[in-house]
Amino acid sequence: MKKIILTAILATALIGCKKEAEKTDENISVVDSTNIQSTPEVKTPEITLKEVDQKGLTEILAKNNDTLYITNFFATWCGPCMMEIPHFKKKIEELKDKPVKFTFINIYNKPAWQTEVPAFAQQSGLADKILLLDDSKLNQDFFVNFQQWDGNNIPFTFFRKGDKAEESVGSMTEEMLNSKIDSFLK
C-alpha cells in the first residue's frame, strides 16, 4: 500500500513538472533576428607587462635618494593581496605630486601573466606600475635585501627612502599603510 501511494505521489510530481516545463516553453517569445540591434564590439587594449629579473629588482630595491620607493609583492590569486590594493590606489592618487614611487611585483603563477595579470592591470589602472617576477629564478642571495621576508609569504611590502627601510609582511590595513608612509614623509 505504501509503495502504491509513493508511486502515485512521484508520478503526480513528474507530470506536474512536465506540464510546468511545457508552459515555460510556450511562454518564451520568439524575437526576429532583424529586430536585434547589434552593438559594436569594444576591444580592450592589449597590455604588455614587463618582466624583471633578480638583478633588475635588486637595483630597484637599492635606490637611495630622496624618493620614497614602495614595492609591493603580490599575486592576483592572493585574497589578502587584493584586499590591500584599494589602499595603495588611494595613496597613489593622494601622493601623485610627491616624490613617492609605487611598484607592484607580481610573483608566482607565471601562466597567469598572459591572462589574469593583464586583466587585473587594466581593471585596476596599475599597468604602468606592475612588473612580473619569476620567483623560481630567485636565489637566496636576493633575500639578503630583507630582514623579515624569505619569499614564502605574500603580500609583502618594502619601503625605502634614502638609508631608511621598513618591511611589512602580510596584508596591510589602510591605517597601517598610511602610518608607514607618513613615517617616511615627515
Describe this entry's structure for a reader:
This protein is an alpha/beta fold and about 190 residues long. About 40% of the residues lie in helices and about 20% in strands. The protein is built from five helices and six strands, in the order H-E-H-E-H-E-H-E-E-E-H. A six-stranded mixed beta sheet has the order 1-4-3-2-5-6, covered by helices on one side.
| Strands side by side in the biggest sheet | 1-4-3-2-5-6
- Percent strand equals 15-25%
Number of helices: 5
Using DSSP, what is the number of strands? 6
Overview features:
186 residues, alpha/beta, six-stranded mixed sheet, 5 helices, 18% strand
List the helices and strands and how they pair.
Elements: H1 2-27, E1 50-51, H2 54-61, E2 68-74, H3 79-94, E3 100-107, H4 116-124, E4 130-133, E5 156-161, E6 164-169, H5 174-185
Parallel strand pairs: 1-4, 2-3, 3-4
Antiparallel strand pairs: 2-5, 5-6
